[in-house]
Amino acid sequence: MAGTPRRLGSLRSQLVRWLLIPLTLLVAVDAVSVYYNALEVADLAYDRSLLASTRALAERVSVVDGHVTADVPYVALDSFETDNLGRIYYKVTGLNGELVSGYDDLPPVPPDVKRSEVYPALVRFYQADYHDQPVRIAALLQPVYDDSIRGIALIQVGETMEGRNGMTRKILFDTLWRQGTLVTVAALLVWFAVRFVLRPLMQLKGEVESRAPTDLSGFDTALVHKEMRPLVQAMNGYMGRLQALISAQRRFIADASHQLRTPLTVLKTQSELTLRELRREQVDAAELRDLVEGMARTTDAAVHLANRLLTLARAEHGAAEGGTMPLSLSDAARQVALELSQQAVSREIGLAFEEEGDVSIEANALLLHELMVNLLDNAIRYTPAGGHVTLRVRAQSSPGQPTVALLEVEDSGPGIPAAEREKVFEPFYRAGATQHVNPGGTGLGLSIVREIAAMHRASVTLDAPAQGSGLVVRIVFQGVVQLRV
Length: 485
Prior knowledge:
The protein has helices at 11-58, 74-83, 162-197, 199-210, 229-279, 285-317, 329-339, 341-346, 365-381, 432-435, 445-455, and strands at 61-64, 67-70, 88-93, 99-102, 123-130, 133-145, 150-160, 325-328, 350-355, 358-363, 388-398, 401-411, 459-463, 471-477, 480-484.
C-alpha cells in the first residue's frame, strides 16, 4: 500500500552487511591487484632466467675460418632443462640468416616486437606456439667478429610454459587462500565487534521491557554511546511530557470530581426537599416553586460546568474535528457577538464589536468558536450591570515583522490583579476579586482559552484597560492568511 513505511530489519545485520560487503569488494580488488603484480614479478624472474640461458649460449658462439659456429654440447642443454621445469629449445642464426645450430623451425621474431628496456642487452621476448605448445622465446642479438668478418648473430632460446603456469596457479591459490582467510577473520571480528558495540542497546532494551507501566522516569544517558544519547534524551523528554500529561489528567479528574460533587449534592438535597414538600398534605405552592427553580438553576450550573469540562478536555487532547482551514476571524467574532448579545442585554451590559478590515487566519472553526464564546461569556459574567464589553479584531504590522492578527476582549469588570494573572489560566482557579461578582463561576474559561490558543500557536496575555477598571484579554495569531480593508 502506498505510503506504508518499509519495515526495517536487524540493526546488527545491516551493520555487518555494510561493513563486510564493502570489505569483501575491497579484498577482491586487492586480490586481483596482488595476483597480477605477482604474475608480473614471476614473468620478470622467468624472463631473467631465460635471458641467462640465452647469454650462456651466446658465449659459445664464435667465428672459425670466416664462419659463425656454435659449440653447444649436450651437457649444456641438459643443464638448461634441469634448471627449469619446462623444455628448452634453441636456435643460432648466422650473419646472413643461415642456421648455425639448433631447431630450424623455431618460430621467428615477429616484426612488431620491441627490444626489452629492462635489461642492458639487445634482447626481445615474445610468445609463440611450437609443436602445439605455447613457448616463451628470448631473441638476443650477439655481436661476432674476427679479423675477416664482423656482424650480428641471432641466438633464440625458447622455453615451454609449464613452469610459468605452475607458478601462476600457485600464486593464484596462495592469494585466494590468504584473502579468503582475511575475509573470514574480518567477518568474525566484525560480528563480535558489532555484538559488543550493540550490547548497551540490548541492555537498554531489557531495562525498558522490565519497567513497570507506571514508571516513567528517565533513562541514564551514560549507559549508551555518545551517538545514541540524543535518542535516549528524546525518549526521556517524551516520557517527561507523558508524565506531565498523565499528572494533568489525574489532577483534572480530581478537580472535576470535586467541582461536580458540589452541584450534584445540592441538586440531591433540593430534590429530597421537593419530595418531602410533595408528601405534605397541604403543599405550599410558593415554596415548591422556589425549590424547583433552585433545582433548575443547579442543573444549569452542572450542565454549564460539564460543558466547560468537556471543552477543556477536547482542547487539551487536540480532539478537534476537521483540522484547520483559512477562515475569517472578523466574521467568526461577529457571529459570536450576535450569539451572546441577548445574554448581554439581559444583564444590562453594553456589547460592542469593532473591526479594522477583514482579517483571515488559518484555524479550526469549531475550536476558534469555543475560544471566543468562552472569552465573551467570561467578560459578560464578570461585568456588573451597566458596564460594557468590547470584542475587537484587527491586524498589526511592524517593520521587518510578519503581520499578526489580534483578537481582544475588553470589559469594565473588577479586573484581575497582576499577581494572579498567570494563575487564572490553571483549571478551577478563580481570582479573589471576581468571586463576589460571579459566585457560580467554574474557573475553566481562561484555561480553555489558553489550550485552544496553544493549538493555534497563538499567545494569550492579560492586561488592564488604558482607562478605568476591567480586563483586556489579548490573543495574537501568527500567520495572517489575508487582510482586506
